[in-house]
């Protein structure tokens, strides 16, 4: 049985994070373009989904850069909540004392589902 080196996992993780954020950013570009041209739009729940699974940085950058979905207060609030949730989670994971608490909570949540 082979063991995947930690550096490979880190590389895959960082690459995945970058690609998800690039994709999320691109969705804001495409949706803004479609809005201007009267074309088929990307549903807000899809934009929020990609932010939730790791693309929140790309989503916020796309929202600001393209000035898209800035007047939609429920959408902006939901996106900001996702950013805050991810910030808190990453902060908790970086603190060794709270890391195990987060893992235990996630394990219990998955086990009960």
Structural class: mainly alpha
Major sheet, described briefly?
A: none
Q: Give me the Rg, rounded.
A: 17 Å
* Coarse shape: elongated
According to DSSP, the number of beta strands is 0
What are the segments in which pLDDT stays under 50 over at least 5 consecutive residues? none
Overall number of domains: 1
Order of helices and strands: HHHH
Relative helix content: over 70%
Number of helices: 4
In whole angstroms, the N-to-C terminal distance is 30 Å
Mean pLDDT: 90
Strand content: under 5%
Transmembrane segments: 6-26, 47-66, 78-97
Pfam families: DUF1294
Keywords: Membrane, Transmembrane, Transmembrane helix
Protein name: DUF1294 domain-containing protein
Supply database-style keywords.
elongated, 113 residues, 4 helices, mainly alpha
List the helices and strands and how they pair.
Elements: H1 6-37, H2 44-65, H3 73-94, H4 96-112
What does this molecule look like?
Keywords: Membrane, Transmembrane, Transmembrane helix. It holds the Pfam family DUF1294. The chain crosses the membrane at residues 6-26, 47-66, 78-97. The chain has 113 residues and is mainly α. The chain has one domain. Helices cover 82% and strands 0% of the residues. It is built from four helices and no strands. The two termini are 30 Å apart. It has helices at residues 6-37, 44-65, 73-94, 96-112. The relative contact order is 0.10. The radius of gyration is 17 Å and the shape is elongated.
